[in-house]
What does this fold into?
Amino acid sequence: MRDIPFDSPSGMPSSDMSSNKDLKGHKLLMIVPWDLPAGYVDDLHESFPGLAVVHSNWDTWKESSLPGNIAEEDWKTVTILLTGPKFPTKEAAPNLQLVQLQSAGANYILDNPLFKDTDIAFCTANGVHGPQIAEWIICTFLAFQHNIPRFLENMKEHKWERSWDDSDTQDAVQQRVGILGYGSIGRQVARVAKAIGMDVYAYTNRPRPTPESRRDDSFVVPGLGDPEGVLPSKWFSGTSPEEIHEFLSADLDLLVLALPLTPQTKGMIAAPQFKILQGKKTYVTNIGRGPVINTDDLITALDEGLIRGAALDVTDPEPLPKGHPLWDAKNIIITPHVSGNSTSYNTRLLSILNINLKKLSEGKEFMNRVSRKRGY
It folds into this structure.
């Protein structure tokens, strides 16, 4: 249920809404593959006495249709919908005003008539993944730097192989991480990286020259991330190959790819870019989408030592078939698209929903609203 915005698309203007503190006349339909936390509906009613709530335990990611146990009357009167990638027709839900997605990405809604042919507000769960994915990124980088994969293999063989060279490990202090896509995940990576002594460079597709432009108003776990945009020591921006190359040439020790898959980002990192990264033998991490990297060129870059290593939570193809040469590339760590997993996912999702319910009640702009122009 993960996709990665290039920038954080927060603060999109909402439709013309008026204040309705109690949300009188509104109905929330929650289609999620889990039972609601104890007391959650009671808390909603305490905050919004006029809000009707309907819940269906249904996995729209696995099932081929919407749940069949929702009454036709509920569809006709629903105004707020929490769901995954399955949607009603606009005729079936004529009063719908807000769709809160379970995922951080919105690529699967772009061609859906409910999004394309209406002005219904669609909001993502951007921000739910920051803590756990940042941990995965820093964890895999440090595991490589400290030779953990090799020691794990030695352990299986009951092999004690100690190095007597005290300078055989490069710690993270004063190393530089370049974050290509400084959204909610990138901002949490920056916070953790700074905490262990790293320098941070940020890259966004649109220029962020002023302190105000570097702010991010999307969801963040309190106390985490970089909502003010103050952690990077240098900012880069643009979409042209020349602008990307300037960023990649900035002596990066770790390159974090936190990008959505778009026609512009497909194959963005390929042989020419690996050639640039060769200067510092950059470690490459991809948690966005597999096709952002040209897989064949990545294998070559690893096996020929152009880069020091790579950590991938996404691959191209995905799932990665047994016997694919990427499995055997040098200095690689591969996990099966699990870096966004967390026991706190559902709690954070409901926090975003609660924020948008409050904004609806106050007639304010929604958080994480998808731009129909940009597609995220």
